[in-house]
Amino acid sequence: MIETQAPSTWYDTVMARFAFLTAPLRWIKEHPKTRRALFFGFFHLLGLLTSVDAILSVRTAQGAIGWAISLNTFPYVAVPAYWVFGRSNFEGYIVLRRKAEDELSEEERKLATDLLAMRPQAGEVPPPAILLERLAKMPATQGNHTELLIDGEATFRSIFESIAQAREYVLVQFYIIRDDGLGRRLKDALIERAKAGVPCYLVYDEIGSHGLTDSYLGDLKAAGVETHHFNTRKGDANRFQLNFRNHRKVVIVDGHTAFVGGHNVGDEYLGKDPKMGAWRDTHVKVQGPVVQCVQIAWVEDWKWATGSIPNLNWTPKPAPGGENGLAFCLPSGPADEFETCTLFFLHAIQSAKKRVWIASPYFVPDEQFTSALQLAALRGVDVRILLPEKADSNMVQLSSYTYLPVLEKAGVQVWRYTSGFLHEKAIIVDDYCGVGTANFDNRSFRLNFEITLLFSEPSVVKEAEAMFLNDFSKSTRATAADYTERPWWFRLAARTSWLMAPIQ
């Protein structure tokens, strides 16, 4: 009879009693080939299960096919990539303007009534506005005054002047805020108003403003400025998603003045970056009932970030001198019921009769947009695309070359701005124009929270036309030869970058 030594500790006792459970683990540890097989098998099973989710949830057939193949072929890379980049629906974000009638508060009902009272008569609303009203769940309004702000000096001079005059509150939202000269001017302006007893609120994108320092935020909070980041990873369904951005740039003062456009807060937006040089950008200052519509979009973002809604002015009033000023606010984002930004641009191009002029620093359209631009040009519409010659993204710049042959063949003109870096996001379609934050790429169409203001007031459209013509005069025409006559390695790099269009 063989005697066994009694276990000396409670741990040894437990391990001896449950040895049948740990034996498989010990066996796997002692057989490295089995470990590798189990590791690969686990990832392939995970890839298979994840591909089912991709097929059920990815919006486009091409995207679903691409993810399904990748997840089953290279699951070790594709599975983590899908968790981070795969989804295009933002979960949990509450769109206040889409609440059911019986869910509206008394204040919300009054705002809806007041805004509708400032909507033009049914026969006076342009057909594009009717579609946009259905997408945004907000009406086009008349009685607005619009001022086009060209480049950074004009934009921030006007913004800081308005903030200094604030008496009720200041609402601020930017994708990028830097702790540099311009950033500190914004900080000082908000601190001054907060110390004067004016409530100030700041929300910023956590990824776009990742370099914002603790001391910068600490100074704001110490002065009483309520400061929060827009956390796109908030909520269990968004935990691993790093692909969403809040790309909006908005300033609202007292509920009667709003600023929207392409500028972020950093010295480069004033042309002070020696690498990028002169910075070409556009903002708009608006007054009138459209400001309440912009404010609704800001409040939705603030509510996501904080769970609360501040006490604001919700009484829309016509702006002095804005009797004929028809304006519309189009917020868009991955929480929308439809792909709002996609549908707007598609409708704008497809409905154009005379012209479509688009300025965008990031031009990476998918096939449906390429076809829409071709069709517009083929039916005689003056289609012009204004892009930067100098780029801040090599991948986007390379991708843009691949479109030149197919666009030129249909008669679409592509121009490259050569007098600095072009960052504006503007559009003219026939007799209306728009300025906002949306680029002409998949990220803005499907993944970013964006906001665009549209105007049909003749004086505003004429001013936007003059702005475009001035930009074209500082640009050179891009041709198919810029791509087809380049070396093979350049064309390969461009096509490879183009394949990455969905996440650029």
TrEMBL record:
Domain of life, source organism: Bacteria
CDD domains hit by this protein: PLDc_PaCLS_like_1 (cd09155), PLDc_PaCLS_like_2 (cd09161)
Molecular-function GO terms, alphabetical: cardiolipin synthase activity
Transmembrane spans: 37-58, 64-85
Domain PLD phosphodiesterase: 242-269, 418-444
GO cellular component terms, A-Z: plasma membrane
Localization per record: Cell membrane
Coiled coil start-end: none
PROSITE patterns attached to this UniProt entry: PLD
Primary residence: membrane
E.C. number(s) listed in UniProt: 2.7.8.-
Keywords: Cell membrane, Lipid biosynthesis, Lipid metabolism, Membrane, Phospholipid biosynthesis, Phospholipid metabolism, Repeat, Transferase, Transmembrane, Transmembrane helix
Matches recorded under NCBIfam families: bac_cardiolipin
Name by which UniProt lists this protein: Cardiolipin synthase
